[in-house]
Amino acid sequence: MVVILKKDTNKEQLHQFSEEMGALGLEAHVIVGQAHTIVGLVGDTSHIEIDRLRDMDIVESVQRIQEPFKKANRRFREEDTVITLDNGTKIGGGNFHVIAGPCSVESEEQIVGVAQAVKAAGATLLRGGVFKPRTSPYAFQGLHAKGMRYLLAAKEATGLPIVTEIMDAAHLPLFEEVDVIQVGARNMQNFELLKHLGQVNKPILLKRGLANTLQELLMSAEYIMASGNERVILCERGIRTFETYTRNTLDLSAVPVLKRLSHLPVIVDPSHATGDAGLVRPMALAATAAGADGLIIEVHNDPAHALCDGSQSLTPDAFGRLMAMVSAIRPYAEKYGAPGEGGTAQ
Ligand code: PEP
Ligand code: MN
């Protein structure tokens, strides 16, 4: 439920209102926006009489939120969420970023070299997996703690903030110096992991599951947010369909749909979506034009010999050419990439 307060409401009245709601078992989530002060009421609001709220002196209007996600809902927060990293990098709200790097960290030399190359091409965050969720238990599983040391060496060498995937909350002590923790597609509905990450003071990059709806993605974001961590970045990375030519099917309409429904930043992963290096460029450009807040792209120094996902990895040179094209179309996306007029009122 969202309560929009009258413009002249003062701090004391706001505090008293929050206390009253607390006494009814609801958490009052106050958002002071440019136009209004909005109080989102989280909890079981079924017993609340809307008319009693509407009659209160400080209340301008009350709306029930039909969607099951509350904190992630655009109705709770009209303005885009902007996530600030420790080095000052801002993600969302018009700040566009490209996260690039190999699927897996393979050696110190490899990750430092790729980090330098993607930085020179304009990437602002470095990716690299050290815990790899593989379909086969016999496939390369990542370098774990050793890989994390190499990834940190690349952060140190380049100053790029790092993004890496977690598969088990028990590994959290290893993630101390990680800037953004990734939850991969296979763990999007690992609710215990999400609840743990809700208690971590780091941004979470949450990927859409292989066969999950956008509402389910938003509900997973809600798990993290409801547990206390509101710094969530959503990622569309393709879903399973009947099409077999591509590894997955990139659902690009996810970008404007998520932007309509939620205030959280939305990025796109054209690498896992297509599974094919030759398809990464057109899909990266399309995602940029569609208004994504960023891209996550796999780049490998030697794709033919990569230990994981080589076929979808760009060389540093190809990545550099792609970055120039992304930069060329970004101004148009800023102007025209927002969800269009009309359509389903959300
Ligand atoms: C990855 O980013 O390397 C990865 C495993 O991605 P996803 O979870 O989207 O498959
Ligand atoms: Mn990968």
Textual characterization of the structure:
It is elongated, with a radius of gyration of 21 Å. It has two domains: 2-63, Phospho-2-dehydro-3-deoxyheptonate aldolase, domain 1 (Alpha-Beta Plaits, 2-Layer Sandwich); 81-345, TIM Barrel. It is of the alpha/beta class. The protein has helices at residues 11-23, 50-54, 108-121, 144-158, 191-197, 214-226, 254-261, 270-274, 277-289, 316-336; strands at 2-5, 27-32, 37-42, 59-63, 83-84, 90-91, 97-101, 125-127, 162-166, 180-183, 204-207, 232-236, 266-268, 294-298. The site of manganese (II) ion has 5 residues, from loops.
Write the layout of secondary structure elements.
Elements: E1 2-5, H1 11-23, E2 27-32, E3 37-42, H2 50-54, E4 59-63, E5 83-84, E6 90-91, E7 97-101, H3 108-121, E8 125-127, H4 144-158, E9 162-166, E10 180-183, H5 191-197, E11 204-207, H6 214-226, E12 232-236, H7 254-261, E13 266-268, H8 270-274, H9 277-289, E14 294-298, H10 316-336
Parallel strand pairs: 7-8, 7-14, 8-9, 9-10, 10-11, 11-12, 12-13, 13-14
Antiparallel strand pairs: 1-3, 1-4, 2-3, 5-6
Bound molecules: phosphoenolpyruvate and manganese (II) ion (MN).
Q: Looking at this structure, what is the CATH superfamily of the largest domain?
A: Aldolase class I
Largest sheet: 8 strands, parallel, barrel
The CATH architecture classification of the largest domain is: Alpha-Beta Barrel
Q: What proportion of the residues is helical, as a percent range? A: 25-40%
Order of helices and strands: EHEEHEEEEHEHEEHEHEHEHHEH
Whole-Å distance between the termini?
A: 15 Å
CATH third-tier fold name of the largest domain: TIM Barrel
Bin the strand percentage. 15-25%
Rg, rounded, reads 21 Å
Strand order of the largest sheet: 7-8-9-10-11-12-13-14
**Oligomeric state of this protein:** single chain
β-strand number: 14
